[in-house]
Amino acid sequence: xxxxxxxxxxxxxxxxxxxxxxxxxxxxxxxxxxxxxxxxxxxxxxxxxxxxxxxxxxxxxxxxxxxxxxxxxxxxxxxxxxxxxxxxxxxxxxxxxxxxxxxxxxxxxxxxxxxxxxxxxxxxxxxxxxxxxxxxxxxxxxxxxxxxxxxxxxxxxxxxxxxxxxxxxxxxxxxxxxxxxxxxxxxxxxxxxxxxxxxxxxxxxxxxxxxxxxxxxxxxxxxxxxxxxxxxxxxxxxxxxxxxxxxxxxxxxxxxxxxxxxxxxxxxxxxxxxxxxxxxxxxxxxxxxxxxxxxxxxxxxxxxxxxxxxxxxxxxxxxxxxxxxxxxxxxxxxxxxxxxxxxx
Length: 344
Ligand code: FUB
Prior knowledge:
This protein has strands at residues 29-38, 41-49, 67-73, 81-88, 103-107, 110-118, 124-131, 139-140, 154-157, 163-167, 205-208, 221-222, 225-226, 244-251, 254-260, 267-272, 279-286, 297-301, 304-311, 322-328. By secondary structure, the chain is an all-beta fold. It is globular. It binds beta-L-arabinofuranose. Beta-L-arabinofuranose (FUB) is lined by residues 31-32, 47, 63, 100-101, 151-152, 169, 244-245, 293, 295. Belongs to the glycosyl hydrolase 43 family.
């Protein structure tokens, strides 16, 4: 379906699940959808995929995005409204290229857009931009968040009103280059600096955000993902190790940490008893989609959970994606029903 002009009537009376496996937006290309309910609407903060004719490489150089749009909908089966461009790379003093997967949060009537981009040294950092409305426009801070690095920020608000930022992505996302605490620039290969197969996998990161939402209130911590025996998932376990696309949601008192396994193309999940983890691996949440990347968010709308994700149905090209959504179910025992996206 096509995004509609702002102010067009929502089809909120429709009873058919017309959104199932259909692109939410036909143009432009959209990916990495981070969805939230702010007030009485669903807001989606995706990447904006573009054809920039950068040759495909192992660092993801062909994902050469330059700006962000915000989308919203009144209900899951309603029309999607495109609120237009809300932030461009030219607006961000420290950012040079590759605006990858963003996320957003609301606090005290202000809206915060967290986004990764490469700086002038081609190092990914995470920036923040602020708006007085969920639809922006967002005004970026002059510098990235102090102490930030790598990609795919995701914000989780706990019941106590604390906000946690999760992030990280290996290979093109550069997380492996920060293993020692400083950026390792000894090799251009995205595979250098990884642990060997039997060592614990590289951990995604978490830090509680400061009251002002634009700084960390603590040093970043590792998010440890363990197997059923309590042992850290190892780097060689490509079916279960963290690759990118962290997301956290809480259901019935359980914290769910979900993420992409990258080269095995799944979204999997692990559970824990607090926002820092450790999280115990549980299983597959979303099977591989069309295209190399798999990236999602999970949001509750009224009493129903939804999975937002993307595939390449419209373009057939891995860097030109389209966002979609599906209902997501938790069983009584806390496990999540695996979604197998119907490939057209
Ligand atoms: O959209 C660019 C990158 O592709 C994201 O940051 C990753 O999660 C993957 O979806």
